[in-house]
């Protein structure tokens, strides 16, 4: 019996097969008209789990030090895949995962924050590449996404949309989570469906604090129960994408304390221990070699003794954070089991969207965005700053936004070289995959070794469901899927390898895989260095991509990329180089280094808007959408109504004490506080009280010059009368926060100025009529001339959020 035409979506409604008369007399209904599309019989539920910023050598399931009992349980009754690959960066992997196409081809050559003017870097999904949630939904699945999204461009994360770039627009019936790349786990700025809902109310409950990973599991279970309460048989597709283990590394102290003392021997010892367990488990071959330490990573023996406890605590927190993620995924799996549906649920669980992140730099950081804002910190500075915010015991709390040191990430990618951002090497591109589906997997606890890639997941899901990739969606002819299904390997360990060729590219780090050979072409830039000096060799007209070194590996004989064969096979090097350029052109990888175009002055035009007005109670303006106040002069003006007896509270606040600004009234005085990533904090207070009635206040920042991180003078005004002044020697060049929003009339979540922390969110007790930002203010003639001269030279901000 033929079914509906699934090659064109949406599926067309069946032709009416009843009878319609002039009255009900003689008319016969056709009940198929009110039926929604249904998937083929036996189509499984699907749970797709993605862990963030983690490495091949992190989970104990693959020999790592982090206890992952749920992951191991799924592997013991399912399958481990040890040659599964991702793209070495967050958004690109997610786009490839959900579309079944190469990441550049769907506009995600970089992260969503760096949407650019080239097709492969637009951060905009082409309409001819319908994602798998849309395909499943139109074929009768209930679909939901929970957790980290990171596929909505920075400037589109507000009530004006467009919402086709939000999860609902990608085919999810329901979404609960964060739109950006990283978030506090204690006070995230949450989104639900097509609305930013901001900081959860539970954040203010000190007895029962909010924790995002717990809430993700709660919401997922609640959604599953709701679907089953309505429809006992409709299959579901759940995309469960944890914020863990992306920085900031936030977890309750008791989880981190489970690992007390376990990393005191350092990262080299951890790599050796992990490598031995991997060989014992058989997840790497017995003849595999442990790759050596690159000189970019310090030796543990060179770390001063007084600093070693600081480094060890970084890894203890990361491990506890990761174990908690395993625990909460386990709660969701247990809920599916309680529904009696685990046997026919296809679980694909990827431990890492790229290799473990080295973006904490050598020292690690109490604040993950210090690196992105080009603010290097020494060990001693880190220790002093950690003490400022509560000491090592506070490393995992909301007082800090911590990231561990790069050498811990290197250890997390055991046995491979490098990690996140390095698309040329396996440390950035090979991650664990566990597949669990009792209804189809006959060899429990098996190991699968064929080369596979994140673009293979979507075709695997579709084949498992018996649903074809559509030819047209909404009347638009579709780009064929680029991946290949590995369903056959679920029941046949000897199934042939179908994915035999794949390019990789991340921020200029490139690789070409074909028939076992892997050509690695890494830039000389160290992933955590984004200083002007580090970027200068890659400026347009300076960098020649063909001039750098190339390494060649034959992976069937060299699992870890330990034996460079480039000198022995120059003809293979040339062959794979040529193939890479052909693939790069085909899949919109070009121009190389488009991710860095912002740093070389290719910034989106300001347009005609230089003044931004916020009226009423506007809250949770996402950090990529605040007015462009960086690196030049600006003013903030507010019209207030102050009742008799005065008012207190926040007029406007962006982000928190680890990077942000706030204009507020306390003890009757207008006050401006500015945090330069929590390292430098500047405050200016008015000399007189705020009067009652209709009052206009203003803060002026007069930049020394229009350049990254410029210093400048601050002046406070009531009306046209100056009432305060001060100096800021440094300002934030790129971004205050990766997640915390801007609020009018209050300071949601973590506060900017901790002097009003006990009163948070410290809502203004008068009325804030409007707040206006002017990013091109009319200052003195000298100031204007400085700005004009600098802008003519096209100076751009520097930094990278990945």
UniProtKB/TrEMBL annotation:
<feature type="domain" description="Sulfatase N-terminal">
    <location>
        <begin position="44"/>
        <end position="467"/>
    </location>
</feature>
<dbReference type="InterPro" id="IPR000917">
    <property type="entry name" value="Sulfatase_N"/>
</dbReference>
<dbReference type="GO" id="GO:0046872">
    <property type="term" value="F:metal ion binding"/>
</dbReference>
<keyword id="KW-0378">Hydrolase</keyword>
<dbReference type="InterPro" id="IPR050738">
    <property type="entry name" value="Sulfatase"/>
</dbReference>
<dbReference type="InterPro" id="IPR017850">
    <property type="entry name" value="Alkaline_phosphatase_core_sf"/>
</dbReference>
<keyword id="KW-0479">Metal-binding</keyword>
<dbReference type="Pfam" id="PF00884">
    <property type="entry name" value="Sulfatase"/>
</dbReference>
<comment type="similarity">
    <text>Belongs to the sulfatase family.</text>
</comment>
<protein>
    <submittedName>
        <fullName>Arylsulfatase</fullName>
    </submittedName>
</protein>
<dbReference type="GO" id="GO:0016787">
    <property type="term" value="F:hydrolase activity"/>
</dbReference>
<feature type="region of interest" description="Disordered">
    <location>
        <begin position="782"/>
        <end position="802"/>
    </location>
</feature>
<keyword id="KW-0106">Calcium</keyword>
<dbReference type="InterPro" id="IPR024607">
    <property type="entry name" value="Sulfatase_CS"/>
</dbReference>
